Amino acid sequence: MKKFFGILFGAVLTAAVLTGCGDGVDENKPVAQIQAEAAKMDTAAIEKQVASLKKAIEAKAKEADKIKAQLAEIPLTEKLGEKAQQLGKKGGDLATSLNKLQNQLSAYTDALAAKTKK
């Protein structure tokens, strides 16, 4: 059983890495850097980044939903077990990642709003 969950966890992790954010989205890029770059970009480029971020956020949200479902399936007697802890850590990492992506999206949409007002 442990081997099965190890393989399953590896497959999910591999899928997450392969699907990733794509399209030039770097969740570790500071918001201040994004604001500076967006100020120099034209509206089409900003719109492209907004679309890429939305796509990345959707993918991460789907992955988070899968983890929630897996956690819900774990019996109450095993909620403190290794599998639940691993899923909880992965869920926390995804929440952090989603927060970073949403902050970046906000920076780009603010820049887009500023450019369209001109």
Characterization of this structure:
The protein has helices at residues 2-19, 31-40, 43-73, 82-117. The protein contains 4 helices and no strands. Helix 2 (31-40) packs parallel to helix 4 and helix 3 (43-73) runs antiparallel to helix 4 (82-117). Helices cover 81% and strands 0% of the residues. By secondary structure, the protein is mainly α. The model is unreliable at 8-22 (pLDDT under 50). It is elongated.
Q: Could you provide a short overview of the structure?
A:
With 118 residues, this protein is mostly helical. It has helices at 2-19, 31-40, 43-73, 82-117.
Note the run of SSEs as H and E. Answer: HHHH
Note the gap between the termini: 61 Å
The gyration radius over C-alpha positions equals: 18 Å
Which regions contain 5 or more consecutive residues with pLDDT less than 50? 8-22
Decide which structural class fits the backbone: mainly alpha
Mean pLDDT: 83
Overall 3D shape: elongated
In percent, how much strand structure appears in the residues?
Answer: under 5%
What is the helix tally? Answer: 4
Q: Let me know the largest β-sheet.
A: none
Helix content: over 70%
**Strand runs, count:** 0
